[in-house]
Each structure stands twice: as C-alpha cells, then as structure tokens.
Records
---
Amino acid sequence: MSWLPPTALGCGEPAGHLEAAGSRKILVAHRGASAYAPEHTAEAYELAIRQGADYIEPDLQMTRDGAFICLHDPTLDRTTDVETRFPERRTTRSLDGETVEGWFAVDFTLEEVKSLDAGSWFGPQFAGSRIQTLEEAVQRARGRCGVFPELKNPELYAGLVPSLVARFHAEALRLELGSEGVSAMVQSFSRAVLEQLRDAGSTLPRVLLFGAKEAGRWVRPEGPAEIREFAQGIGPAREILLDHPELMAHARRAGLRVLPYTFRGGRVLEDFGDVQAEMRYFLYELGVDGLFTDNPDLFPRNPEGSP
Ligand code: G3P
Ligand code: CA
C-alpha cells in the first residue's frame, strides 16, 4: 500500500508503506486542472499532468450499462448538453433524503454519454470535449502521475448486483491500479464504501472525506482512531482544519494522512491574500500531507517564495 507521491517515487517503483510517505507534499488536481478547463475532460486531466499533479482526481458515476465515468454530479445537465440532446429523458430520484430532478447518468448508456458535449458550458474553445471513462483517465495517467478516484453517491447504486464496490474493486484490478506505472488511492464520503473495499481485500490506500455536517464526530480526539479501522487518510473540508487545527495532532496519533479539499483561486478563505498563500499555510504551517486544488500550477512546492 503506497502513499508515496508518484512523481517522487518515479511511477513504477515498488509500493512503499504508509509510514514512508516522506516530506514531499501531494498535489491532487481536483477534477483535473478544473480552474482552466472543463472538469473531468481529457483537456483538464492533461493540463493537470503538465502542471505537475501527483494525482488526477476522477469523481466516479456509473452508466446504465455499467461503465465507470468521470463525472462529479449524479446528473449530466450542469456540465453537458444532455438537456438539448435528450429533452424527454429527465427523471426524478430521491437522493440523500432530497428529491432531485435531472438527467441521471445512470439512465444513459456509455455510447449516449460519449455523444454529449462536455466542454461548451465552460467555454466555446472546449466545444466537443467528451466525458472520460475511468479507463481513459488511467490510460492518460499511466507512467505520468497517479489517480485518486472518488466513489460518489453509493445510495444511487444500492440495488446493483454485483455491488458498486465489488464492481469498482474488479475494475481497479483489471486496470492494475496501484501497481507498476499507476499509483492510486481511493476516496469516499461514505464510511460503508471504504469498509466494503477493505473487506473486499483492496490494497489501495483509502481516504475518508468529510464536510461540516460530519465534522463533529471526527474532530473529537478519538475520532481519527476510529477512522483508522477502515482508512489510512482523511480528507476534511479545509474550513474544518482551520476551525480545529488540533485535528492534525489527533490524525497523526492515529497514523492518518491528511489531505484537505478544495483550494481554488477566487474562492480563497478570509485571512489569506490568494490561493497560493492559503495552500502554503495549510501545507507548511498546519503540516498537511497534500491537498486538492483546481489550480495545480499554483501549488507551492516550497515553504517560501515562488511555487
Ligand atoms: O474529493 C474531494 C473533494 O473533491 C470533495 O468534493 O464535491 O468536489 O467531490 P467534491
Ligand atoms: Ca471529489
């Protein structure tokens, strides 16, 4: 189980150990270089790799015919032209206790998804960009950087046989994630997903994400020790760490890595002049192991001075 940043290792080096992560900070390109190109497209992933990402971050949803695709929302309407292309395919589902209307990816085949324009919403120069499959993202990363997929919305796929987690585990083995040439970790807001991955025998390092709603439970001194039973790292929203810097010590005591999300120019927290100063504070003052950012080019590799 390796936590070493792939660019520090050199892709293809043998797996190390959690304890051996060293001091190189881990740059996770959030949805690719998503400040500059439409999230989760080939353009966003390619730019992130060129900007020095250690990991690209595919959020995963699934199509009707069982393909893992890189898509943040469970629905296609925010980032594609699905509404124009398939106006009659809008549906309603219950998700996280709320009623959600839209064009759910799980109602579309991979061929249909691949026919959508996933770039024009971001800018006309990206017209015709396509949603990527997990396999395509891995192919792009192989030998160049790692992949850090997130299993999203498990409740949407609860009825699947085999289960979402079993399918992901099989796909990770097929794509040889975590082996020579493609370092990998996996993340989820769902504890159950990470426990199922552990029980399935997955050797990929697992990271539990949490936001403000779940923070109360995990910032307690004993919280991280509980997480250590099913994960090797935590991904708190950055605000949680600012409000509870003691979480760093609790996490260290439990042997957990810390990778907060999400840092982006234009959404900088109060008290920081710019996103680079903000990232520098988290990396070198709070001492996190890495972070998720939409601006990989601004990730500060040095505690002081230029990136
Ligand atoms: O996965 C870390 C971060 O990306 C969580 O937020 O909503 O962008 O997936 P989200
Ligand atoms: Ca994510």
---
Amino acid sequence: MKRSGKVAYQPRPEHHFTFGLWTVGNPGRDPFGEPVRPALSPVAIVRKLAELGAYGVNLHDNDLVPAGSTAAERDRIVREFQQVLAATGMKVPMATTNLFSDPAFRDGAFTSRDARVRAYALQKTLAAIDLGVELGATTYVCWGGRRFALEAKPNEPRGDIFLPTTGHMLAFIYTLDHPEMVGVNPEVAHERMAGLDFSHAVAQALEAGKLFHIDLNGQQVGRFDQDLRFGSDDPKGAFFLVKLLEDAKWPGMRHFDSHAYRTEDEAGVWDFAAGSMRTYLILKEKVERFNADPVIQQLLAEVDGGKSARVSFGELRNMNFDLAALRTRGYAYERLDQLTMELLLGVR
Ligand code: GCO
Ligand code: MN
Ligand code: MN
C-alpha cells in the first residue's frame, strides 16, 4: 500500500504541521478543576515538537513572555527562544495576542465598552505583532504582522461574540481600509459550535483567496468549547476537510488548536500531538485513495449529467428540458457515501 512518506504516516516539516504553545502547553484546567499537569516551558515544547516532526510553533505574546515581565526579562526570554528555534530549525509562522486572560478584558478587548481598555488592547496587540515579527512570523491571528487572519467564534468566553462565523468575517474584511492584508483563520470547533459545516466555510474562504491560516481540532455540536484532537470525534468531516485542503494544494500551515484530554500526563500530551499529525496524514492517504478509486470516480462522473448540457445565457430561454428524466433520475449518493464510509473504515 502506498504511504505518504518513507515511514508510514511519519510527520515531517514539509507537511507544515504547527501547534500553539498554549495547546500542548495546556495544563488541563477547566471551570471546575485546577491544573492537572505541570506547565511545560516553551523551550521544552519546541524541542519535543521538533523531535515529533512538526514544522513550527505559534504563540500568544504571554505564552512566551509572562504578563508583567520587565523589558530586560522579555529580551532574555526571546533570545533563549530564538536559540532553540535556530538549534531545531523550528519556525514561528503565526503570532497572536492574549486579549482574554487579564481581568481588564472581562467586557471584551477591542469591543470593550471602556475606551481605555480598547486602547490598551491595541497597545498590547502592537507589541505582540512586533514580537511575532522578531520571531519571523508572517501571519498575525486576531481572535476577537503583516497578514491578519480573523478568527471567528460564536461564543465563549463571552456569551455572544461579534462576527461569529467565518462568513461574517469575510463580509467584514471588505469593509476595511486594507482588505488585501486581511484574511481568515477558521477553526473546526468554532463553526461546529454554530452548527455549521466547517468545510463549507473553508471552501468559501479558499475561493475568496482569504484562507490565511487554519485551526484544526474537534468539537461536537451543541457542547462547550471542547478543543478535541483533530479527527477524533468526526472522522468523516475531518476527511472532507483534508480533501478540500489537499485537492486545493493549499500551501498554508496545518495548525492544531486543541488540547490533550484532562486525564493525561505529559506522555499523554505527546501522544496527543503525534496523534493529531498522524490522523491528518492517514486522512491524506485516504484522499489519494478516494481520488484514485475507479468506482467512486465513475459515480462522480455520472452524477454530473448537467455538464454536457451547459449553454450560454442567451440559449437558456429557448432550451427544452427532459423534465420527466430530471424528475425521476437517482443520484446514487447513498452508494457514493457508503463507498466513502467503507474507504474510511478500512475495508476498501
Ligand atoms: C479559542 C481560540 C484560541 C485562538 C487563539 C489564537 O477558542 O480559545 O480558538 O485558541 O485560536 O487565541 O488567536
Ligand atoms: Mn477555539
Ligand atoms: Mn483557535
């Protein structure tokens, strides 16, 4: 069987897998329980992810430089971090700002009612962009640089977040003074929380040329923010997403914005990180099989009966349709879906 690499499903930097310092570094706190794992240092995270085959790490300002650090402390931390990046070859493709932990942001950051909080959020963001540039980042994610990727989320931590979906963000971008600088960073969990189909949001962003970044994870509809391991709760949805990204040859970062289960110790965190990348590569191979499967491709070709009937707008008014045939034809989607499922379940 053809595998995507020399060793089966072995992640390599060319696959562009990235993790947030806040994702593998998440100590497992939840609204009801204290942290269950010791904090991992950013330097240790970079070393371990490099060993697992990742391309890089992304960070919020305070994931690297703790809030309240002096300028000298900041510079020392950044220097040490740059050393480990250089030593491992790991990159920082994306930077972002923590605009949620500080109690000052409890009425929002850019959208706070208090103008002083909005100004502080802007100042903090400018500093975070400078930090990102210093570390070589080319995308800045704004959840709530040089390229700005807006990340939509419908709720949590606030009840109703403005611009709650990727579609809202896309519409908003064209109202900006510099829409060419701004794209989106859609997240699986966020569109699913809104009950939407994630692949549709990503496809629309791709078509608009606005897919600057992506946050991969898993989420069940109707639940709190779960940040599950990519593909673990909805393998079929994950398959169609990987298919979309790979078929489009999208060159961007496959960033995992998810957390290990709260039950895990440090070894479990690295199982989570390795598993995220492995699942992506397995699904990528399934995409290759789907695209090469003669029966599936035949069904896809047959379903598209309208292609040969394509006519100019002028001809359309006088065209005769065989409505009896159109009304009675089947689409064979059940067969197609079953074949897809069998491929995913490993019997095809
Ligand atoms: C969340 C978001 C964050 C953002 C991150 C980058 O639900 O908390 O997904 O993880 O992705 O803050 O801006
Ligand atoms: Mn999220
Ligand atoms: Mn995210």
